[in-house]
């Protein structure tokens, strides 16, 4: 039996997503080599795009953002401008 390790699968998926993101924003790729400690990259354009898709799918409903999920001010402002 050839079982797929779920963590390995998630890791490979994350790598694919990062490569796709970095290909659109080359300045991000260089950050990997400049930073010495773990850091977080937030794609505000991606957040806005996903919010727009959710809003489109649930027309007539008000969408709220749980600040507890991520209280980064730029994320909150991006979503507030988008209508969350």
Describe it:
- This protein is mainly alpha-helical and 84 residues long.
- Helix content is 62%, strand content 0%.
- The protein has helices at residues 6-24, 26-34, 44-57, 73-82.
- The longest helix is centred in the first third of the chain and has 19 residues, at 6-24.
Low-confidence stretches: none
End-to-end Cα distance: 47 Å
Number of strands: 0
The helix tally amounts to 4
Integer average pLDDT: 85
What does the radius of gyration come to? 16 Å
Order of helices and strands: HHHH
The outline comes out as globular
Assembly state (oligomeric)? single chain
Question: Helix fraction?
Answer: 55-70%
Beta-strand residue fraction: under 5%
**Can you summarize the main beta sheet?**
none
The class by helix and strand makeup works out as mainly alpha
Sum up the structure in keywords.
mainly alpha
Characterize this entry briefly:
The protein is mainly α.
List the helices and strands and how they pair.
Blueprint: H1 6-24, H2 26-34, H3 44-57, H4 73-82
């Amino acid at each position: 039996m050839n079982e797929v390790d779920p963590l390995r699968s998630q890791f490979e998926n994350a790598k694919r997503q990062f490569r796709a993101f970095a290909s659109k924003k080359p300045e991000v790729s260089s950050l990997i080599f400049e930073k010495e400690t773990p850091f977080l990259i937030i794609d505000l354009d991606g957040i806005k795009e996903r919010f727009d898709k959710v809003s489109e799918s649930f027309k007539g409903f008000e969408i709220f953002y749980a600040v507890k999920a991520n209280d980064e001010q730029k994320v909150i402002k991006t979503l507030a401008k988008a209508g969350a």
